[in-house]
Amino acid sequence: MDAGLLTETELRSALAEQRKWGGKLGLTLVQMGFVDENSMVHALSRQLAIPTVDLEAHTPSPVALQAVRADIAERYTVFPTAADPLNKVLTVATADPTNVESLQELAFHTGQRIQVVVAAASSIERAIRRNYHGEVTSPTATPLTFGMDEPTFELAPPSESEPLIVTGRATAHPTPAPRESELLQRVDDLSQQVASLERMVAQQARSLRAMLELLETRGLVTRDDYLAKVR
Fold it and tell me: Which domain CATH number covers 42?
């Protein structure tokens, strides 16, 4: 709210939704479309004076990856970005740097002091799938990613009678035509739907991995048998 990204009405609506369904408030705000993940990350970074990290462009050190098992990273939704074995300091990316209890448990599991940087939850999940499970991920999903046809539109070029509005503070573009505004809203709606689908697929993948590990632990199936079936 201090950053101007959220109104009091939106916050009250998100709190009501959180009380109804549970979960983290930040995730609820994102799912309801009140705040996008990048804005949430940067607001947290400014408020808590914690740096951000772009996991799509970041290559973690092998030492950092070895310090945190895949199931631990998935359990706490964190991703190791760097390690200092000499001083026993592990840097992890998290979307919830205020969750001190989870960070303390992570320190216990790794036997190292934890230093945090902030990243979007979806980018952390992609980094886990990419670096621990060898999956090919994309930071920007499209409907074609899920086998859906995406409608295309042609926007008419702007009229020469609609010049840019220049003020002393900033340069503003003219108000979009009604058809263009409608198309932009449709694109925004599709983007939110795709983001929801990506989160759902990631959750299903985690559930399947957990089930496979449980069956493998109980000796009911082997990983080779499972891979042979799905190929």
Answer: 3.30.300.160
